[in-house]
Design a protein that fits this description.
13 helices; alpha/beta; 8-stranded mixed beta sheet; AB_hydrolase_1; about 45% helix; Rossmann fold; transmembrane helix; globular
């Protein structure tokens, strides 16, 4: 009798699981399909390292040292919308979707090392004929920004690091989507299944105030994650872009550096911001008490004001 009921229970669970998975089927979408919504003017595409890199170049082209904005893991150039609206009035602002993310999509050679990401930054700037720039980056983008300053110091005039990564990982809390993407079984399952609720929960995890996460914001992250190849590339990104590899070279960064940190960042806690401040001689740390891991997106007005003062 017990065995009979157990089998019934397993059958019911299997049915509910099947319904749940079917209701959350999410197949890859083409760049052409996604571009209709996410790449209107002034979006353009640039052929770099075998990829069509999605980018935007705004503000006065006479600016000799433009600001280059580099987003973090699973984000896109849209994360900087609030900053760009303010900065482009005075400065030339360039931003682009990194390999593995947004509309740029996977690297054709499946290369997501920090060295390669820095090379892509320089390749984009070379194509746009930019000799020197202010590099700003959040999370992974911050790591790429300061790594570029390490490898190509002559190409960077200033740095703005927003809750940047690069130190050995020591999170207080990791978004569920990040955890699943690193699990072999779960990542295989997520190839064609992606609950929007999972994306929403992951975004709320990195906000200081989860109530600020809107349906429009969730839709953006969700839809761009469906860009063909992005989900499999995310797993490779976590395996290859290893933190800690360049820490011994961080002291070589000597350009003026602004560090912006959200005190409520549980992914890369404030203690790492303080470590960056100690290691980079010419640096200043500004902490926003109510913000989380993406302060530029959560409160662009407050954070960009600090950037304007720094510049």
């Amino acid at each position: 009798m017990i065995l009979k009921y157990s089998l019934y229970l397993l059958l019911i669970l299997a049915v509910f699981l099947g319904i749940y998975l079917y209701s959350n089927l999410a197949y890859d979408k083409s760049v052409a399909e996604l571009s209709k919504r996410w790449a209107p003017e002034p979006s353009q595409f640039l052929n770099v390292a075998g990829m069509n890199v999605h980018y935007r170049d705004e503000g006065p082209k006479s600016d000799k040292a433009p600001i280059v904005l580099i987003h973090g893991t699973s984000a896109s150039l849209h994360t900087w919308d609030g900053w760009v609206e303010v900065l482009k009035e005075q400065r030339r602002v360039i931003r682009f979707d990194l390999p593995a993310f947004g509309l740029t999509g996977p690297d054709p050679k499946n290369n997501y090392t920090i060295e390669h990401y820095a090379k892509v930054v320089i390749a984009v700037l070379d194509k746009l004929k930019v000799d020197k720039s202010v590099l700003a980056g959040n999370s992974l983008g911050g790591y790429i920004a300061w790594a570029t300053a390490v490898f190509h110091p002559d190409r960077v005039s200033k740095l703005i690091l927003v809750d940047a990564s690069g130190y050995p990982y020591d999170p207080e809390s990791v978004p569920l989507a990040f955890k699943l993407s690193q699990n072999p079984i779960a990542s295989r399952l997520l190839k064609n299944i992606l609950p929007k609720s999972l994306v929403e929960k992951s975004i709320k995890n990195v906000y200081g105030n989860p109530d600020l996460v809107t349906e429009e914001l969730v839709n953006r992250y969700y839809e761009l994650s469906l860009r063909e190849g992005n989900r499999s590339a995310l797993k490779a990104r976590f395996e290859q872009t290893l933190p800690g590899a360049l820490i011994e070279k961080l002291h070589t960064v000597s350009v003026p550096t602004l560090l912006i940190w959200g005190r409520k960042d549980r992914l890369i806690p404030l203690k790492f911001g303080k470590q960056f401040e100690q290691e980079i001689v010419n640096s200043e740390l500004i902490v926003f008490d109510d913000l989380g891991h993406v302060p530029h997106e959560e409160n662009p007005q407050a954070t960009v004001s600090a950037v304007l003062k720094f510049l």
